[in-house]
Amino acid sequence: MAVASGTTTYKRMFLRWEILRGWMPAIVFAAIAVGIELLYFDYMVSRGMMDEAFTIPLGALKIPLSIALFFSLANAIVLLTLWMNVFENTAYVMAGPDRRVRRILYPLRMVKAAAIVLTPFTIVLFTPYIVESSWFVNAIASASNSIPSLRQTAINFYTWSFGLARMDYSVKFVVSQLSAAFSSTVVSGLLLWRVKGTRNLMLALRRKK
User: I need a surface site. Which of 15, 63, 114, 144 has the fewest CB within 10 A?
Assistant: First the structure.
C-alpha cells in the first residue's frame, strides 16, 4: 500500500512471513513472550498454585500436559498475533532510494511494536505481586512514616489489596493472565484505531486537493 504526498512517497513496511528473514523476528518475539509466561508460571507454582496436569496416551508412552502451562502458551500466541498486527499496520517508512535507511528503520519499528505489546502485558501481569512483596511494603511504610499524609491512604490501599491477596492462587493466575492479555489488546487496538483514523484523514485531505 502506497500513499503519495506531493513528491514524497510513503510505503508501508511489512514482514515477509514466507521467508526466513521474516520468520526470525517472529521466533525471537515468541521466545521472549514464552519466557515471560514461563517466569510467571514458575513464580505462581512456587507461591503455592496447584498445577493440574493430565496425561495423553500415545501408544506405549504417556505424555504429561499442564492446563496452566497451556493457558500461558496460549497467551504467548495472543501476544505474537498482536505484535504482528501492530507492526504490519503501523510500520511506515519513507520509500526512498536509500535502502540502508530502511534496513535500519525496519528492526527499530519491530522493537517499537514489541514494546507496545509487551509493556502493558508485563506491567499488569507482575505489578500486583510486586505491590504485595515485603520489600515494597517496607518501602511504602518508610515513605508513610516520612510523609504522614500518605499513611491513611497506604493503610486503606493495603487493607483492600490484602483482601484480594487471599484469593486462591489458581484464580489469581487466571485473572492476572486475562487482565494482562486484555490490557495489551486494548493498547494495541487503540493504536491501530488512531493509525486508521490518521490514514482516513490523509485520504480525505487528498480527495479535497
Answer: 63
Residues 6+ apart with CB under 8 A from 148: none
Confidence of residue 75 (pLDDT cuts 50, 70, 90): very high
**Phi and psi (nearest 5°) for 4?**
-95, 135
The β-bridge relationship of strands 61-66 and 2-5 is unpaired
Query: What is the model's pTM?
Result: 0.73
Q: Which of 31-40, 105-114, 133-142 shows the lowest per-residue confidence on average (mean pLDDT)?
A: 133-142
Q: How many residues belong to the chain?
A: 209
**Which one, of 203, 187, 3, 207, lies nearest residue 93 by Cα?**
3
How confident is the model over 71-80, as a mean pLDDT?
A: 92
* Close Cβ partners of 188 (under 8 Å, ≥ 6 residues apart): 82, 85, 86, 116, 117
**Cβ(202)–Cβ(92) under 8 Å?**
no
